[in-house]
Design goal:
Helix content is 15%, strand content 42%. The chain has a single domain, classed as Immunoglobulin-like, CATH 2.60.40. It is elongated and about 75 Å long. β2 and β3 form a beta hairpin. It is mainly β. Keywords: Membrane, Transmembrane, Transmembrane helix.
């Protein structure tokens, strides 16, 4: 029987450097937008852009006001863009949540808590109307 070394417990993230705060960025989408599984979001902080993965990520920033913008590229154009200006205080963690829209032609949403998917109400109403029309059509035939 082969023995494998025991995996260490996950370490707690290191605290930010003195004079820095941490932004805990949560980037998500509704799974009904299945095509977003194949697209990486872009995060722009104070004009500096980078592609990231969906999910949570800690970002250490110096204390002060910072502009955070999140979106994704689709058909060569930025889509679902949302931005927020947040205060970062030394030694504190500031949560920021982004939610991609239900339709790629509208803006996403950002806030300190996970916002509702923009456009999802229109999506649910459209599906309800389509089901109702299908039922009426089948009853009339």
């Amino acid at each position: 029987m082969r023995m494998y070394p025991q995996q260490p417990y996950p370490q707690q993230p290191m605290p930010p450097q003195p004079g820095f705060g941490r932004v805990l960025l949560d980037i998500s989408f509704n799974p009904m937008n299945w095509f977003l599984f194949f697209i990486k979001p872009t995060v722009v902080i104070n004009g500096q852009a980078r592609q990231v993965e969906w999910g949570q990520m800690p970002i250490d920033l110096p204390a002060g006001q910072h502009t955070v913008q999140v979106g994704f590229q689709y058909m060569g154009k930025p889509r679902g863009v949302a931005s927020v200006t947040i205060p970062v205080h030394p030694g504190q963690v500031q949560p920021v949540c982004y939610r991609a829209p239900a339709y790629i032609f509208i803006a996403g949403a950002m806030g300190p808590t996970r916002p509702m998917t923009p456009g999802i109400i229109v999506n649910v109403v459209a599906i309800g109307v389509a089901v109702l029309m299908l039922l009426l059509f089948t009853l009339l035939l």
